[in-house]
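Reply to dn_fold:

You asked what the input looked like. This is it:
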Amino acid sequence: MYILADPLAFIIRPIYNLIQNYGLTLIIVTILIRLITIPLTVMSQKSVAKTQLIQPEMMKIQEKYKNDKNKQSIELQKLYQKHNVNPLGGCLPLIVQMFVLFGFIGVIYNPLEYILQLSKEQISAISQAVGATKSTYQVTLCGMQGVAEQIKELGLTPINFNFYGIDLTRILKGNEKDLMMWIFPVLAVVATYISGYITKKQTPQPAPSKNGEVEPPNMANSMMTIMPIMTAIFTYTMPAGMSLYWFVSTAFQILQQTLINKIINKKVKEEIEGKRK
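and this is what came back:
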């Protein structure tokens, strides 16, 4: 996790030093990374759109060779090659965002190390001075009384974690009575649900059963239910800064996905129909 935090801190640190606003820095960096990974998003959407359009052909192959899985796999592979489809192409942006997520966790939990660049010895001295335990997270330490003064004694300016009245170092768990603390977790859960709904609409659904058996739900259906629950747990137990990141990242993804779909889907449809002629 900390290895992944190093390259992210390389981006976060100069932006924070320039604007001196922790919350705005997280937003800018999150959007910047989303913009940088647009090529991966476009490639992923092309794969999803193509898979949707060749779904009828896939279903025919699955039905024709339902008793011969090996032949079915070969014919599906031929179909993928014909239309230049990578069945796993839609997963690449998710993998990248997982690495980014772990990087953000490292930075947000250790802001003294990655943003202020304090040494372990300096952080340990501050912890002892304010009576923190060895197990106290840096992000928690930053909110403790006397820490700001200790940082100033080192000739540095303490990080301003206040973002429109919300302390981004605090965790919702244990602070449920503070209504402000619910804002970003709730927004994150809602954005995750909307993102899952859009993904479900784009994902090819299982072929209808001819013998009356109920088809099991596909991954998109499962993730639409699981991800909001995971997001709720995630944002309830982690600093508000992570909730802010999760919300901004997911909200920008929805906007990005919607705009890209309008452009990509039309082009992919023309490409697939051209190959069928």
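The chain is about 70% helix and 0% strand.
Hope that clears it up.
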